[in-house]
Amino acid sequence: MKRSARIITLSQTAWLLMALAILVFSFFPQAVASYFSFGLFQYIGLGLRFITSSTKLPIGEYVYLILIIVLIINILLSLYKLKNKINTITYGTYLLRFGKKLTLKLIQLYVVFMLIWGLNYQKSSEAKSFHLKIDTSYTAVQLDSLSLDLMEELNQTRQILSDSFIQGIQVDQVFNNSILDYAQLKNRFPQFHIDKPVLKQATFPSWGDYLGYLAFYQPITAEAIIRTDIPLLTLPYTSCHELAHQMGYASEAEANFIAFVVATESTDALLRYSMLLQMFTYCQSEHLGLIAKTGNFENWKQIVNRNKLLLDVKVRGDRKKIKDFFIQRQHLLIPASTPLYDQFLQWNKQAKGIKSYDEVLLWVLAYNKSKQ
């Protein structure tokens, strides 16, 4: 028994030391970027994708399903054990033992999560490699100017895309094109390199209605899993966003920016249009939000009406289809899912939580300025 107890103690100590080492390492973002994000993580991801790419089945979804089932079973077993042991040991003693086990499990979860994905949240900003100076805020004037530019590009790009072409969009072709777009730019942007990229269609897309996602990167299997029940015009940009995560860009703003750059520099009109639709949505929302804070709702209405008039009727139609898709499903969203995800992002150095997605506008403004 003493030897067994010693082994358990040594095991616990090892996990604790690994957790402390990872925590200390996370305070050095440049080292995290060099040795983990563009080092160890790349090999871990490649090894996992080598296994999961052998099938089109999104293994990651089933892994999460199994984990949820195991968690429920363990909770029920713990409650059953509590009921049986409460008569043989004091309640306080049981809680102490349970607390120790739970603490160890959380430490183990922290270590595994950080090593397969979480450390990417701690890496240095990608702004340096693009020679960008990212501001901390934007003005209504900047957003208005960006909105006008985006609307002009939206109209021009939509004219290139025929209705028959859009109606004939195939998911597999979108996935293949997204991967090809990254490959074609890796000489100009070496940081866009990814070995054996994997994009997969979600088997259970309706989960996203309840949890509030269009796609997700599964760190346990290194797969990018994407709902394909979403409006297909959102699919190219979403695919490029998830490929950015697969490369090690954990920040939602950075993943959005990488997808923006790929779409901007690509000759793929569909990807560019998909990106412009998303950027305009972010931009208009933020612009109107700034105006609303001033209380000038007359100006708010004028901007809304102006934008409607400036957008091509087909662009407005495409935006309406996308908007209607989310409106029809918003009642299915589990209320707790949004604040939980918001808190998760804040814990991982994304101070604005879900609003971090919109921060891509700061990157876009800086990128456009660098091109002038």
Description:
The chain is an all-alpha fold and 372 residues long. The chain has two domains: 2-122, no CATH class; 140-371, no CATH class. The protein is built from 15 helices and three strands. The chain has helices at 2-25, 29-52, 59-85, 91-116, 140-160, 163-167, 171-185, 207-211, 235-247, 252-265, 269-294, 297-310, 313-329, 337-347, 360-371; strands at residues 199-201, 215-218, 223-226. It has a three-stranded mixed beta sheet with strand order 1-3-2, sandwiched between helices. A hairpin with a 4-residue loop joins β2 and β3. α1 (2-25) crosses α4 (91-116), α9 (235-247) crosses α10 and α11 (269-294) runs antiparallel to α12 (297-310). It starts with a helix and ends with a helix. The model is unreliable at 1-5 (pLDDT under 50).
What attributes characterize this protein structure?
372 residues, mainly alpha, 15 helices, 3 strands, 3% strand
